[in-house]
Amino acid sequence: MLLVPADLPFPASPEALYGRTGPWVLEIGFGDGRFLVELARLHPEWNLLGAEVAPASVSRALRRLKREGVAQARLFRGDARFLLRNLVGPRALERVYVNFPDPWPKKKHAERRLLQVPFFRLLSTRLAAGGALLLTTDHPEYYEFATAEARASGLFEVRPGPPPPETLRTKYARKWLDQSRPIFHAAFVKTAEADEAFPPIRRYPVPHALMQGTLPPAEAFRKQVETAPEANVVLLEAWQAGPGLVVLARVEEAELAQEVLLEARPSNKGVYVGLRPSCSPLVTAGVKRAVGLLVRWLEAQGLETVQRSY
Ligand SMILES: C[S@@+](CC[C@H](N)C(=O)[O-])C[C@H]1O[C@@H](n2cnc3c(N)ncnc32)[C@H](O)[C@@H]1O
């Protein structure tokens, strides 16, 4: 039920993902998963997809879907834009729901809002002809902002209307209705398609290096940081694993954040530096950079690189 970045096929075949065909519907920011359960009850023929960035919410939603016996949903922990770009093929989705998105009310945070022209451009390539995004929100300013952005994209028609009753039963809907806040709703119906293809992120072969010399003890390790336009990489901590070292790295790229375990261990050819076998991230440019950063730290500790493949 849980999709992980390294296993996302592109373009995904709903038959392979769900074992059946049917309308494909995405919920962005599913929170505790309540709305997915509602959709499964109302539309047993729909194949449901959910994206949610908060890990605790994903765990809660997974438990809820299992408890409620919902088998027609696949969940992704991460940014919906990454999922759209890396799993959903052109014109594959019938509908997208966004219920009570984070409004980012402060002006300096407005750039974090999801529903902006670049998002609508990407979405237009993944929605089927006549497909729509349904927005329900308690936040008048975000509602105005999102409708203006959708219109500015030139790719969507905004159709305001009453919210579908099921969108008023989510956790946040209940919270705001209890406070008697007004609720705003519109369907953004696709009328045209952006001319870019929005291809999935580039994947690389597993990066590694061979070094010579003596590994330093884990206590010698200090946090390493590399910032670059394509990826931010931090080597957070290292610990001893037998004669080798394991290093925890955080790799942040556009719309994707991964925690990656690296290792440096003696082998019969020298010191092998690469990904820990138990860890299978999506091998991106940022993951290659993480291995490179570890190699450079080991070079600074006196090891010599004899072979590099990244
Ligand atoms: C205010 S909550 C609403 C949750 C739920 N839809 C409800 O109505 O109860 C917004 C949710 O969107 C999630 N979120 C924000 N940006 C996201 C993104 N780019 N992709 C996926 N989820 C996102 C947040 O983690 C949060 O759980």
TrEMBL record:
UniProt entry tagged with the keyword Transferase: yes
What's a GO cellular component annotated to this UniProt protein? tRNA methyltransferase complex
The UniProt entry, under SUPFAM superfamilies, shows: S-adenosyl-L-methionine-dependent methyltransferases
User: Binding positions for S-adenosyl-L-methionine?
Assistant: E27, E52, D79, D102
Q: Which Pfam families match?
A: Methyltransf_4
Q: In which pathway does it act?
A: tRNA modification; N(7)-methylguanine-tRNA biosynthesis
Which positions bind substrate? K106, D138
Reaction it catalyzes: guanosine(46) in tRNA + S-adenosyl-L-methionine = N(7)-methylguanosine(46) in tRNA + S-adenosyl-L-homocysteine
Query: What CDD domains would the database entry show?
Result: AdoMet_MTases (cd02440)
InterPro entries documented for this protein:
SAM-dependent_MTases_sf (IPR029063), tRNA_(Gua-N-7)_MeTrfase_Trmb (IPR003358), tRNA_methyltr_TrmB_bact (IPR055361)
Q: Name the residues that span the membrane.
A: none
Under which EC number(s) is this enzyme classified? 2.1.1.33
Instruction: Give the superkingdom in one word.
Output: Bacteria
Keyword annotations from UniProtKB, A to Z: Methyltransferase, S-adenosyl-L-methionine, Transferase, tRNA processing
Broad EC category: transferase
Q: Which GO terms describe its molecular function?
A: tRNA (guanine(46)-N7)-methyltransferase activity
What NCBIfam families does its record include?
Answer: tRNA (guanosine(46)-N7)-methyltransferase TrmB (TIGR00091)
Describe the task this protein carries out.
Catalyzes the formation of N(7)-methylguanine at position 46 (m7G46) in tRNA.
Q: What family does the entry list? A: Belongs to the class I-like SAM-binding methyltransferase superfamily. TrmB family.
Name of the featured protein: tRNA (guanine-N(7)-)-methyltransferase
